Amino acid sequence: MMLITFGQILEIGTQRLKQSNIDNAEQDAQSLLLYMMNEDRTFIYIHKNDGTDESHAEHYFSLIDRRAEGEPLQYIIGEQEFMGLPFKVTPAVLIPRQDTETLMETAILLSKNFRGGFSVLDMCTGSGAIAVSAAHFMPKAKITACDISAEALEIAAENAEKNGVSGRIKFRQSDLFTLKGKKDKPLKDKFNMILSNPPYIATDVIGTLQTEVKDYEPMLALDGGADGLDFYRRLAAESADHLKKNGYLVMEIGYDQGQAVTDLLEGTGRFKDIFVHKDLARLDRVVTARLA
To answer: From CA 138, how far away is CA 118, in angstroms rounded?
Structure first.
């Protein structure tokens, strides 16, 4: 029995999200409807006045309720786009963000300095957004992707398969440069480029973040220690041993961490050409350095 139109349930869903102070309420309400119907955006314009049944309406409103409670849209629909590529995401991995495209774009530019084949390490790979994008946009590169989370590595491997680059990426479980297994052992490989978007939020700041982040995204991928710099200390101290001659270290940073991370790299005496790059909002976002 036809009870209500698609346009009407969409309007109800939008209002529920607005009442819950969800940013982009209208867009999210549309995305959830299209996800439920497995359709593209033209569906809304063509079928807005078509009737739907009670089961569809109930399913839709259950999705709306999840979003209204703060669950990220990307976890509900299970996907997020990064660098124009589709990525599966679950609560086991951080949701790829547009900010990180600054890191990827910087790495692609730097990769033009290498002639022939070269090697790239993606440290703290998470969903595999960086590793998969590197394989896609750097066809001459051999990629290694590391993460401490076995669940994250499974998702990353699925994303490599999804984007047709699984044959070019080696996935390894590690605590930074220590490989995990029956017996832990150091990673001995060296690379032309190390890319990393490590956890960089200070522990006591996490509780102040949006519900979508603090209550749903993996703490392992967020918590950078008391001052947010724990992983940068380790990357600064250890990454030089894993770079080939003239190799690059490229790291995403928080908007207020440029000077602190620069100081850490300078303090090792092992890097040169240290530079802080800004994102589209003109905020510090990426630090690059070259092996001295």
So the answer is: 9
Query: Helices in the chain by DSSP H: which ranges?
Result: 6-19, 25-37, 42-47, 54-68, 73-77, 100-111, 129-137, 150-162, 203-206, 211-214, 230-238, 258-268
pTM confidence score: 0.94
Which two structure tokens, joined as six digits, stand for 265?
Answer: 């790299």
Which residues, listed in sequence order, are joined to residue 146 by a DSSP beta bridge?
A: 123, 172
Q: Which amino acid is at 244?
A: K
For 134-158, what is each residue's pLDDT tens digit?
999 999 999 999 999 999 999 999 9
Q: Which residue has the tokens 């259950």?
A: 62
| Ordered domains of the chain (ranges, CATH) | 4-69 (1.10.8.10), 91-291 (3.40.50.150)
Euclidean distance between CA atoms 192 and 107, whole angstroms = 11
User: φ, ψ for residue 69 (rounded to 5)?
Assistant: -80, -5
